[in-house]
Amino acid sequence: MNFIIKSFRKLFCSFIIFVSLIIWYTIVLETVDAAVTGDFTNEIATRILKYSGYIKVDQYSNLYFWFYESRNNSQTSPLILWLNGGQGGSSMIGLFQEVVPCRSLVKGTDVEVFRESWNQVSNLLFIDQPIDAGFSYGNNNISTTEQFSQNLYIFLQDSLKNFQNSLK
């Protein structure tokens, strides 16, 4: 019986975290295409310049990303590439739970800028990788380090072109 109670608690906590992430994603943050240059209207978005979307790595596969510019001179700030550990771990978990540039207030009706976020001093690039991890999708099964590396290399070439105004 004790095992069932512990399992239920873990399941319930996982469910609460999942629902919280969905609410955060749909209410707080605005997703834009990588080609968009950051035309945002809400107060938080104007203080934290961000881009998210997909970059095609082959004919059938797209990697999802979320990029945050540094709050202090993005062209001279370093770029941090965030890849969550483990096969198929979404980097959005690291974004929302560890590095979060803005966070919900207690009642969940508004957000505030998180002053200790890493984008205070660096540009942040989160990538859901390999294919089929998180929001990334495609028809190719990635089963080797070489395949993953090739997709990541293609992704970085294209994404760095898109963000050349933000990065030195």
TrEMBL record:
<dbReference type="InterPro" id="IPR029058">
    <property type="entry name" value="AB_hydrolase_fold"/>
</dbReference>
<dbReference type="Pfam" id="PF00450">
    <property type="entry name" value="Peptidase_S10"/>
</dbReference>
<dbReference type="GO" id="GO:0004185">
    <property type="term" value="F:serine-type carboxypeptidase activity"/>
</dbReference>
<keyword id="KW-0325">Glycoprotein</keyword>
<dbReference type="InterPro" id="IPR001563">
    <property type="entry name" value="Peptidase_S10"/>
</dbReference>
<protein>
    <submittedName>
        <fullName>Carboxypeptidase S1</fullName>
    </submittedName>
</protein>
<dbReference type="GO" id="GO:0006508">
    <property type="term" value="P:proteolysis"/>
</dbReference>
<keyword id="KW-0732">Signal</keyword>
<keyword id="KW-0645">Protease</keyword>
<comment type="similarity">
    <text>Belongs to the peptidase S10 family.</text>
</comment>
<keyword id="KW-0121">Carboxypeptidase</keyword>
<keyword id="KW-0378">Hydrolase</keyword>
